[in-house]
Structure to design on (115 residues):
């Protein structure tokens, strides 16, 4: 029995939730970009400090669990995807506007090397 045939209605509902959340994320990115255009100082004053906090607490912190509670959960894959989502947001706003996080992977490598 394939993944698509199991709980077909549930799979459709999850697809709708994913679509709705994607729309919310895109709207948030659009607002952040418009604010950065209207008030460029917001990037250094608000965005970068929040991103630094996010990077420290989510991307550079130790895992919450020693043993992963979910079968098939790959923390490396998830971590890579989180970095990519953050980079996508920065690219949408305009990477050139950022001092520290214009290139997320380079910033992570620099912070890891500094530790």
């Amino acid at each position: 029995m394939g993944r698509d045939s199991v709980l077909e209605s549930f799979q459709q509902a999850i697809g709708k939730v994913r679509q709705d959340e994607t729309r919310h994320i895109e709207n948030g990115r659009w607002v952040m970009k418009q604010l950065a255009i209207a008030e460029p100082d917001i990037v250094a004053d608000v965005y970068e400090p929040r991103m630094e906090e996010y990077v420290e607490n989510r991307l550079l912190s130790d895992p919450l669990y020693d043993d992963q509670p979910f079968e098939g959960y790959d923390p490396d894959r998830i971590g890579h995807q989180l970095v990519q989502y953050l980079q996508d947001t920065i690219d949408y706003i305009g990477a050139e506007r950022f001092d520290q996080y214009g290139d997320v992977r380079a910033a992570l490598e620099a912070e890891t090397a500094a530790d």
Q: What stands out?
A: The longest helix spans residues 8-38. Residues 3-114 form one domain. The mean pLDDT is 88. The helical segments are 8-38, 41-59, 75-93, 104-114.
